Amino acid sequence: MLQLRPGCECCDRDLPPDSAQARICSFECTFCADCAGERLGGVCPNCGGELVARPRRPAGKLGKFPPSDARVFKPQGCGT
């Protein structure tokens, strides 16, 4: 099950579980659409994988399957 991490690893922007702006790689590294496209060129700086739109979990399932509350913030790997 996807973790649905709460923020962008580059800029720490909030990415709630229903955000259409979240991008992930196959390891679930999470970035906002702006950082993924403009700073990273659609490539994860951690694993080199493709960054794609993160699926949104139906609101009715969030109670039983909550998103992660663990933030990952690693701006040093995101260029300038």
From TrEMBL:
Pfam families attached to this UniProt entry: DUF1272 (PF06906)
Matching InterPro entries: DUF1272
Name under which the protein is recorded: DUF1272 domain-containing protein
Lineage: Bacteria, Pseudomonadati, Pseudomonadota, Betaproteobacteria, Burkholderiales
